[in-house]
Amino acid sequence: MAVDSASSGCPVDHAKSEPKCPVDHTSAKSEPKCPVDHSANAKPEPATCPVDHTQSLKAFMPNSPPVNPSNNMPLVPEQTSTDTSHLSTHRTVSSIPRAARYESAGPSECPALDPQTDNWVYPSEQMFYNAMKRKNWSPHESDMKTVVPIHNVVNEMCWAQILEWERMHENKCGGPKLLRFEGKIKNVTPKARLRSFIGYQLPFDRHDWTVDRCGKPVRYVIDFYQGKADPKNPSAPSFFLDVRPALTVEGAWDRARRFFGF
Asked: How far apart are CA 255 and CA 239, in angstroms?
């Protein structure tokens, strides 16, 4: 039997090439990265209100002084007399302590800070008169000697009622202090609106006062109503103040505690 002189073996010549992955990885010259370019948003511009509030006052009073954009109040106290008579520029110190971290509205804020007592200071007759004119009201200088003391007394009444609510909470930080206050005459509270549906008058003003309770801000809502006239002195002004905690979970609990007496 004849035998082939060549040695038997695998028909594939393995010596010609080494086995390798069918994908050519050498062609990738850059490291893999996210397809979204995050560098475009690396330094976003801070969010700002699109409305320039500094122009609102100038639109009605082009000769008005520069204003603070945070509250549309003049940057400097308005103690300058603009009319014939001379109103007092004396400012009365309130009994309301101001929180160390109070939110300032600038040197024109009403009230301001008394450096000796750290209490809020009420506006003078001249400041009150100028503020009313700035709001396009028609004040009379002769009324300021009556209006300003009433304003101060009403604020003291507000603070006294807030302190009654605050006695429901233990305070080891020297007592509550007023952090900030806001006038919201156009924002009628749900309670006041509900009362109006059953025949009561709407409040003539509304404030929100925020108290610093050992570093915790606590907001109170105040509705101002015209009170009943005193039969013994019917010409004397009379006010009714509805002071209560804002309707948060804690505020609702405080309201319930007072209502049910526990």
From this structure: 22
Cβ atoms < 10 Å from Cβ of 172: 6
Rounded Cα distance between 80 and 31, Å, is: 70
Query: In this predicted model, what pLDDT tens digit does every residue of 1-21 receive, in sequence order?
Result: 444 544 455 555 555 555 565
Alpha-carbon distances of 69 from 45, 110, 184, 228, rounded to whole Å: 19, 16, 17, 39
| Nearest in space to 117 (alpha carbons), one of 98, 130, 136 | 98
Q: Give the neighbor-by-neighbor strand order of the sheet with 216-226.
A: 177-183, 205-213, 216-226, 239-245
Tokens of 13: 């010549």
Alpha helix positions (H), 61-143: 125-134
Q: In the chain, which residue ranges form alpha helices assigned H by DSSP?
A: 54-60, 125-134, 144-166, 190-197, 249-260
Encoding tokens for residue 146?
Answer: 């009556």
CA distances from 138 to 46, 73, 133, 134, 141 (A): 40, 18, 6, 10, 10
The pTM score is: 0.65
